[in-house]
TrEMBL record, chains A, B, C, D:
Record carries keyword Lyase: no
InterPro entries with a match to the protein in the record: KFase/CYL, KFase_sf
Keyword Ribonucleoprotein: no
Keyword vocabulary terms for this entry: Hydrolase
Signal sequence residues: none
Organism: Rhodococcus daqingensis
Name listed for the protein in its UniProt record: Cyclase family protein
EC number: 3.5.-.-
Length: 297, 297, 297, 297
């Protein structure tokens, strides 16, 4: 165990594949529905495109290719289409971990095990993950909480590589007058993504949470942690523990991660509590899904 | 014009690319937030996978490929990973119009024009759609209404090829004691998808709405029409008008379409009014996005 | 061992990854250069396209997508292109084992080992095959020999599922007045592919060689065996040994396989001896390559 | 016309799609078969892989993904495979213009026309090129000639951006004691690719032929021009004419281009005349094909 607390393995049964999303009971959903005050809809996704967004080289460039357009109108005509009538369609090639995406619990393993002790070798090339794949998740609805660490520190963005501490999180929560609750969907703002999108600077290093902050969040029994950076955790990794934040949250505690989340507008509106919904694509066997999280303030 | 009513072109300005989603004002969103009674979350997506779901041949099979698993742990080790630690990741190849998906307003054109009169030839191979692409949409939140035509007619599924009429819709609404309102996100149940998923029968023909029903919905000023079939409209097309339902709703009225929607659970619960949220992926220039719509009952 | 003969493991050294292509010495190449009599060039590949050719469902449909055409001329213009000047380019998605293709020695394993005893688990998702991948092959040049079994039996095509025997091969060779030599690149005609391309019938079953014929070819020390069918060997497999022909040739003897080869024109010309050249794509780590073999008669 | 000579449009008929490959008569092929002296086989392709080779960003990274390996052995077992028996297969995603590749005559257009005057707008997203696509080519066999400009100038590689002149070509030919003949497959060595592969320097600028050299080659009635660089022609383009070399050779004269050709070994062996064979993949409608050209010295 990397975190100092008892893990969530077994907490929801030996055959559980849902992890901390088990916290999202209908009661908590009803509570969350009462949070919005303005009715303003926030779209927290960033574009999926060949460049301009944080694409990691080894994953290959996401590509949208036009499969059919008006130049193929003969296909429509052959099916009875009138002149001037047709369809436009695309073919997509993209990593599951592209742009704004939600990690499945099978994404990372430690000691050769994923969440709940399932063996790491049950992810095969053709079939993907046998356990804890993203299609087990479906729809997520709950109380969204923004923790604006950058604002709490009075900066536009945290320094590249800065390791966010538990104290940083607590101070920001105090500044905002917010308390974390069981099952919260927590979004942590570092300011990094806004700067990257605006200035197209270096991808690395990046600010993000460290091991202590990850443990702090796990102890609060949150259901999901997102951030406006590529790995939620800092890069380089805190204490040089490779994927340490992922291990504490995803592997040990079944807490989902949401990466490259666009938090600019929520922050600008000082919208710290909101209804958050996420519709992960039901890609059978996948280890993540690109998503556009939708918040209602 | 296929429909008998005035179109929505120009209604929200000459440069509008959002169409009927303009109806989704914060006030309507706040109203919709008051609908849920149970707090139950419904995930309305179907799987994205190589077979078993309605994949159209000409679009190519959606593929999830494992890009990295424990067998590539050397990559993690090279970055300082401890033995037994690593990541699982996928590469995705899929049509934008795969499984449960939301059509962008640029998806279909008629008289060489898409919604609001933009020219059809502004969709190019490399850049995609210049106007009304799916990335312009982002997050959708509103009042979801299920119109269970199959239940209203007392059948498990409508006959393959059956053309749903305006009277069918009105009768089902009456049976359910529901009225349509401006900006509604309407989901029409034919029962076809449940049968297809269960029995893997023929893809075509399919029941769906006809031209009159499409006009009826447009007159109600709904924002989106979804259905548990491949094209919302019937196949073969009503009155043999190729993509006629798409033309009435998408092209003439800027009303979005949602296809292959899983309505089984909502129907089983007789949940006819609900909060519906959709997070379309912000794929730059794309003509659709796979989605997992999330309803809260 | 499936075949009754000593395998080729170790024959060219413990670290050999080339297998029977070691037979293709410069002397044998010079001999092969003297074979052509007419100078006629034969292209032995079949099309790579979405339909009409034997595509196996589980591999996904090969797709050629236009990435850039004249509608993206703005890209050329931005780089100084004159009006009316531009480029057309594609993006390709296809299995390595598509249409006419050459199997690498790592393609099949038996007793958890590929050719020369390398462990089967050295093919990983991200890096592919560590040993005997197709990029180790490069260019193949040698004496091509057509064995027209269909013609020898006086039929257009062998019966679906027919298992070609060693005696069938010997009789056809005798009919043709040809003897096999060490290092030959042998192409066996069943007639199946011509019928399939012309009539678009059922993919399976298919005629092909059986275990005895495979052993016969291995004993002749040929370097490659191709056929006008999907697996060189018959489907269903001879004696129900799954991939038995692959095991005898590829695994035990390091003899390459060439599948879906178009032999119609060679057969029509009764061209039984020829120079054969194959340029396998140097796809790092791949288990096969689509190819267009070129014969000169 | 960019070149000062009459173009080849119409030379082989109004409906010709083959261009200068029409020169490759059986007689010329028989002549070429007499050239090899050593029987040594040269593989002129470079690897297709995610990095390390000259991949242009806008085309996306070529990806080889393992589709099936031993971890999916259950699939083999379900088909009757014995324990320890299975197959390894890949899925490929790559531009048609990747690594070593052959341009189809439809690749570039000028004055809105491709070779032989076919309209540029006959390349559509779904179907690709109606005319002069790479699948019309198939197998190429002829006299290969290496023109080692770098060696002729006594340098390892020409300066980045250097524009090779007609005089440079003639001097190198004279140094080598070689004359060009009708139908030759000419490979021009700049040394750039060897340096790039070894040192992973900057992709641009690159040495290559200029407009005058292109015209010189067209006047010699060669069938194909290849080079050890990305565009055959220099980058930046000679006289700032965007794709000028492509226009002279490909568009105006139907002379094929072969790019990123590995000429190191031929040059080291001073092998200036050889049999050259190229098997372009028969990708229906494609604008190019990755190839591994095979030379026999």
């Amino acid at each position: 165990m990397l975190s100092t607390r008892k893990s969530n393995w077994g907490r929801w049964g030996e055959s559980d594949e849902l992890g901390a999303l088990n916290h999202l009971t209908p009661e908590r959903v009803l509570d969350a529905l009462r949070l919005p005050k303005t009715g303003k809809t926030y779209s927290l996704g960033i574009p999926i495109q060949r460049s301009g967004v944080p694409n990691l080289d080894y994953r290959g460039t996401p590509q949208r290719l036009t499969m059919i357009n008006h130049e193929d109108e003969a296909m429509a005509r052959a099916n009875g289409g009138a002149p001037g009538v047709g369809a436009n369609e695309d073919q997509l090639i993209m990593p599951s971990h592209t742009s704004t995406h939600m990690d499945a619990l099978c994404h990372v393993y430690s000691d050769n095990k994923i969440y709940n002790g399932y063996p790491a070798d049950e992810v095969t090339p053709y079939s993907g993950a046998a356990k804890c794949s993203i299609d087990k998740v479906g729809g997520v609805v709950g109380r969204g909480v923004l923790i604006d660490v950058a604002a709490s520190k009075g900066v536009d963005q945290l320094e590249p590589g800065y390791v966010v501490t538990a104290a940083d999180l607590q101070k920001a929560l105090d500044d905002q007058g917010i308390e974390l609750r069981t099952g919260d969907l927590v979004l942590i703002r570092t300011g990094w993504l806004e700067d990257y999108l605006a200035n197209q600077g270096e991808m690395m290093p990046q600010p993000g949470i460290g091991l202590e902050a990850a443990t702090f969040l796990a102890e609060k029994d949150v259901a999901l942690v997102g951030s406006d950076n590529t790995a939620v955790e800092s890069i380089p990794f805190d204490q040089n523990v490779y994927l340490g934040g992922h291990i504490v949250l995803l592997v040990e505690n079944g807490i989902y991660l949401l990466e490259n989340v666009n938090l600019a507008e929520l922050a600008a509106d000082r919208c710290y509590e909101f209804l958050l919904t996420i519709g992960a694509l039901k890609i059978t066997g996948a280890t993540a899904s690109p998503v556009t999280p939708v918040a209602i303030g």
